[in-house]
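Worked example

This section walks through a single chain of length 329. The input is the sequence exactly as stored; nothing has been trimmed or padded.
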Amino acid sequence: MNIPANQIAMDSRGLDDLKRTARDAPDKALKAAATQFEALFMNMILKSMRDGLPKDGMMSSSAGDTYTGMLDQQLSQKLAGKGTGLADMLVKQLGRNMKTATPEAATAAAATVGAPLALSTTSLAKASTAHPLKAKSMTMPMPASTIATLANTTNASTTNAVTDLGKTISATERKREFVSTMAEHAKAAEAKTGIPAKFMLGQAALESGWGKKEIKDSSGQSAFNVFGIKATGNWTGPTVDVTTTEFVNGVANKVVAKFRAYASYAESFADYAKLIADSPRYANVIKTAREGVEAFAQGLQRAGYATDPAYATKLTRVINDTIRIDKQA
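Given that input, the structure is written out below as tokens.
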């Protein structure tokens, strides 16, 4: 059985064809499986690079992200087997094992490469790393340790290793890690403000990009400012200068502003709680929080917490995402 080069194995039909070929003729399936694995890996890299780019602005939308993901998937499929050398390396290493292996082991070796292709298209579209790949630090091909694991093992442990790679770059896992890390601090802030901890977790997630876009100083150290609070008013603590997006009359502009810097996430949440609880400007925000997520988000926007005209809409979406993740935990 021949698998068309343009048939992506991430849809169920393509994956089933690949599985049948691996069972009936492992040697023929190996190249196809390795190429599809390379396509999957390249798509993850493209997604990580996209996530590293700023998405603020009037042209940013969930529909645009969807079409961009579809484009990246097609690009990955066309480039696989031509550029990185990953597929060729997998074929060479696993093919060497298959020559001396029993038929059962040979089939397992081919299936090993195809295992991670069972990820759904939806999962792939959302894939990102818990510690995301940055364009400046990416090297190709796959790390030697991963290649060695794939090459030298033809049993279930290899499949688990590849599956673990997929889990490592799961956007959902990264979000869960963020919620888990910040939960204790959010509960402390809830005790001071009365605002539900999940609401503040959602706002911290929006402002920091789920921790991926934290404010950092010139040396790359985190300022732990997950709420994007600027160093205005009577702030006398440390600060960092950061390029940010401000909206003036609905038009996005890049400006350099001073932001507060903290020694820990606990300090960040404590300062946010103090700002909300003590400032007359946010008095109504605490009241609207009792009415639900959307009312809280709109209350913050009316109080001028951010200049983005779509801030309330974005915040509502992320808070609801946070609540859903917490329920699934």
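What to look for: The radius of gyration is 24 Å.
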